Amino acid sequence: MNENLEVAREIFIIPGRNWGSYPSSNCLYLKDLCLIDGGAESAWELKPEVIVNSHWHEDHISMNSVAKKIYAHELDAKAIESYEEFERRYALGEVVKLFLAYYPKLAFRKVNEFIEEGEVLKFGNKEIEVIHTPGHSAGHCCFLLEGKILYLADIDLTSFGPWYGCVDCDLQEFLDSIDKLLKIAKSVEIAVPSHGEPVKGENLQEKLLKYREKIFERERKIIEALKSGIDPVGKGIIYRKLPEPAEIYKNFEKIMIEKHLKKLNLKSLSSADKDGS
Ligand SMILES: [Zn+2]
What we know:
The protein contains 8 helices and 13 strands. It is of the alpha/beta class. The chain has 2 domains: 5-213, Ribonuclease Z/Hydroxyacylglutathione hydrolase-like (Metallo-beta-lactamase, Chain A); 214-276, no CATH class.
């Protein structure tokens, strides 16, 4: 197990297994006060009063049952509170229970307080600024602690690139959210993604730009496929090789490609075929 890392006085990174490789994820912890997300195995030893959820995905809400209060953005609250809404947003039907099986203690429960863009949450003498960064989910938020520690949640800077495979994802919003983070990147000392190793502030701008570029790289390949009359789904444009269960990941890929078509003002894969030929 990785050691917990104190990045500022009484602020700790709680690394998930293998630096938050799914189904694990990294959390931030304000000692005895508040946990941001709850996907790291060792976080179960903690007793936070409050868990702040960056968004509604299962690898971020799995510890919600242990806190007295849950904070989240209003746009994600319903999917944190109800399995039915969680299932609807994944658009996979009951198969989504395969993901929930990783988290036997996950409980859908009430969000006690809504957080919003620009709000400053106060815990003891610590301050957490809420940065609403939609795109990965409608209510996805990043958090700036003490003006210098940035919790990136699932704007995770992985080499895979941005993920937008649920019905409440939005590609243009994702780009705008990355741009929002680029504006503050220079003041950040350390950035902590939910998945992957922390990033030093001096490398953040370059990593965000590379991550952003992945969207345009995919877009170029999608347009190329459509021009050749090829259905871009399952051609390695998003997932080089579909992970198992392949049907689930093919569905995510289909939704992600549909998000590109929406951004390009093409209504659906069938209308895109016509346009591209
Ligand atoms: Zn997520």
